[in-house]
Each structure stands twice: as structure tokens, then as C-alpha cells.
Amino acid sequence: MLIDTLFAARDLARLKEIASVLVRHGFGELVRRLGLADRLERAGHALHWDHAADLARLPAPVQVRLALEELGPTFVKLGQILAGRADLFGPEWIAEFEKLHSQVPALPIEALRPQLREDLGAEPEAVFARFDAQPLAAASIAQVHGARLQDGTEVVVKIRRPGIESVIEADLRLMARLAALAEAEWPALKPYRPQQLVREFARSLRRELDLANECRNAERIAANLAALPYIVIPRVYWDWTGARINVQQRIEGVPGERIDALTPEAGFDRERLARRGAHAVLKMIVQDGIYHADPHPGNVFYLSGNRIAFIDFGMVGRLSERRREELLSLLLGLVEREPRAVADVLLEWASDGHGADLAQLEREIEAFVDQYHGVPLAQLRLGQMLADATAILREHQLGLPSDLALLVKAFITLEGLGRSLDPNFHMAAEATPLLRQVLRARYEPRALARRAWGTLRRALGVVEHLPDDVAQILRQARRGQLNIALDIVHLKRVGDQIDRAANRLAMALVIAALVIGSSIVMTVQGGPTLLGLPLFGLLGFLGAVAGGLWLIRAIRRSGRSDED
């Protein structure tokens, strides 16, 4: 069985834990279909199949959420990533994924000291003028402590949990193998791209494990937003920052959840805060191409002078120049109600959807956008329009490109944050001037000349290497070395089925031989007997009966598997 080749012995204990949680939450059939139960039982790990009936009555999205929570930080993070995939999952699934949180009990400072001494070069109390043993917050990957530098600057120290990297890597290995097996065994899962989802998730999580990467993201975004004095990004102190620890300026202000504290008496103007926050995030997305991918209230502080501070840049989104052009066309098409422009972009994004009815998809997109014709700009909900557009793709079993999945969630979160500050906030009205400004900048002579030069340089490179490439192909053809690679996904499965069929045929021949041979022995006089019958003949018949029962059972199990 394919599963036998997938799991190393070092992962068996974790595999048993994952399979047990799935069984407990009503996914026993999934465990059987993947072959996990047989593999674990052969390795001496028995699963308990009881106590799953009550949980099995819960809706599937709830079951999955509870299972992810029980499986630990890696799977909780996966659920949080999936919460942004409205193009793959319906509203009921997204609502459950959004309930996942990574708050876990904090580790005592003594458990962190060996790692802190190694990273800081001394005890934290010797490096900092003050170091708070009690953490400010704790999550699945890291926890945050308050501290003060020797010059009196208040900072926060983010410390990665010791040993978390090996746990996450083991889970990622298992996820990758299970995703490959699930995609091969269930063609219906292919539109959800399980292997691609796991690869994207693994890249995102490994970046998040590197706490220095968070600081590099923060500094890059701070440089991009330097022209906006009302946006604050925490300063990074690189002398004490590395992969397992980072030290950043401590932001003192009103947390994003405390909207009620943003009163005129306290010096805050909510309408201005909403506009400024929207302008900053839109600039990150459509101009800079790198943006805070999770601008929820927990990552926002409001400061005096109607300034806004963004923290926690562990999760950022990146958009290539081409993607920004497509996004610009899509957003302008939505706010200006141009169905053709929206349809063109979404069809381009869905171009890898083999088997989809693209003509029908185009008609649905145009009908969707056309329903907003004549609606005042102030009444358009841009985030909801993006979510509805991706829902149309989902109905056709088409997914968004990976670099755009986070973007839709960021837009929805940003619009919700703006409306919580100002009920009259309109994202479409705020976005339109910036979108038009960026569009005009794209067609300035200098921008056109830069793109033309880049295109010409790439074309010259292709022409320069063309003779060598053609000569190499011709040499390989003359030598009979020109190969065409075909990737047939289910070839291994077909081979396994042929192998099983051959084994059953061989067993049937053995059974037939035993029956014939035993019948002949029964007619021979003499030799040992049992119950008055020749012993060897009787043993031959018993062996034939046992083999026949095994063969019938194997055929029945194979038939049930094919029906599934």
C-alpha cells in the first residue's frame, strides 16, 4: 500500500495522535480511506474507535475546527490561513475557521532562560535595565515580555518557544504526505489543491518562525510609508534580534478593540482615523506590493494626534507588479461598475481551471457586476464585492492564485475596521482617488519608458539564447535523446491494482491445485488418517477452504473500496 512508503518511524507517534483525534471527531472513515488505521496497527499502535458518536452529530465545519484546536499550533495556524480562503470554502466554514485562536498558556521564564542566554549572550536582566518575567501575551509560536533598554526606551521582547520548530516540522512533513495521498485517492479534492495549500502554508509558517523576518517586513513597510507621518511602525533593535528573538519599540496607545475610548474628549477623530487607516493599507497594496495581511483590531493601536500604529508583521502579503496591475483593473472595474473589466481579470486568475465552463463563468461575473449599476459609490461595500466575486469562482470549483487569497481577507478586515470607527465609512469612495492616481502614474512617459526597456531587454535575452537552445534540441534529436516527460498521476495506483489482481489469480490457481490434488489423495489407500479420511487429503481441502475464504474477503473489500 502507498501509505507504507510515506511515514518514517520517527513520525509514527504523532501520526497516531493525529489519527486518534480525527477518529474522536467523527472522521474515522477518512482515517480508514487513507490507510492510516492499517499502517498504525501493523506498527503496533491500536486506535480506539469508540466515543465518536456524539461528536459525529455536529456539523462538519464545527468538527473540523474542534479537531484543529486539539491537534495543536501547526493545525491551528493552518485553520487561520484557511479562514482567508473564501474562494475555496463557504461562509459556514470560514466562520468556524475564524474562531480558531492561538492563545496558549505562557511558559515560565525559567523554561526560556537557556535559550535567552544563548541568543542574548547574557541573562536578560543583565542586558536590559528591566525585564518583566510575566509575559504580556502568549501564542502558539512565541510569547512577548516587556522590557526597558539601558537608555530608558520601553521595548517588547518576542521569544520563540523552545522546541517548537521540530514539532512544526514534523507536522508539516505529515501534512505534505497526507495531502499528496488525499489528492491521489480522491480526485474530487483536486479543485481544493490540498498539496498546494500545504506548500503555501509551510512557506508562510516557516517565515513566521523566523522572528527576524518579521522585523525585516516591518522595516520595509515603514520605509514605504515614510511619507505618511500619521502611520507608526515599531522601531527594531537589531543588536538583540535574531531567528528566535526580536526586540521592538513598545507601542503605548489605545488598542484597536477599545473603539469606545476614541472619544473627541480624548482628542480622537474617528472619521479621520478611518480614512487614514484605509489610505495606508491601500497604499501598501496597490502601490508598494507588500502589505500587512492581517490588519485586525489586535494588531492596531491608536495614538495621540490621530496617528495609527501597526504591529506584528509576521504575516504579510506580496503582490508582483503584474498582480498589482490586474488588481487595479479589478478594483476600478468594481467601483466604476464595468463588468467586462472585472470578468477579464477573474477569468485570467481562473485560467488554470481545466474543465470549467468559462463562458458560463463570464456570464455570471458580468451579471454580478451589472447588479450594482446605478448604485451610488457611497453604498458599495468593496470588501463584500470581492468576497462575492471569489464565491462565484468557488461555485465553479476554481480557486484564486495563492498571492491573492490573503488580499481578499485583508480588504474585508480593513473595511470592517473602518466601519467600526465610522459607520459612514465607504471603502469604495476612499479607494477610487488612489486607484485613479496609480493608474495615471502607470502611463506617465517615464513609467512607459521603463516598462518598454524591461520588455526589450527580456526579448533580446530570448533572441540571444535562441540559437543555442535550438541547436541543443537538434543534437538531442539526432542522438535519440529527445525525451518527452509525461506525468500520469494515477499510474502507481493502476500498477497496484494490477499487482493485487495477479496475486488473487495466483491464489485461485493454488486453491484449484489443492482441491484437485486433495481429491486424488482421497482415492489413495494407506497412509495416516484422521476421522477415517486420508490426513493429507483432508489438510489439502482445509487449506483450499481457508484460501477461498481469504479470496472472497479480499474481493468484497476491493468492491467496497471501488464503490467509495
Distance between the termini: 17 Å
Structural class of the helices, strands and pairings? Answer: alpha+beta
> Stretches where pLDDT falls below 50 for ≥5 residues?
1-7
> How many individual helices?
22
Strand content: 5-15%
How is the topology of this model organized?
Layout: H1 12-24, H2 28-33, H3 36-42, H4 53-56, H5 60-71, H6 73-82, H7 91-97, H8 109-120, H9 124-127, E1 130-131, E2 137-138, E3 142-148, E4 154-160, H10 164-185, H11 194-209, H12 211-224, E5 231-232, E6 245-249, E7 254-255, H13 270-288, E8 290-292, E9 300-303, E10 307-310, E11 316-318, H14 321-335, H15 339-349, H16 358-370, H17 382-395, H18 402-421, H19 427-442, H20 445-478, H21 491-522, E12 529-530, E13 533-534, H22 535-563
Parallel strand pairs: 5-10
Antiparallel strand pairs: 1-3, 2-3, 3-4, 4-6, 7-9, 8-11, 9-10, 12-13
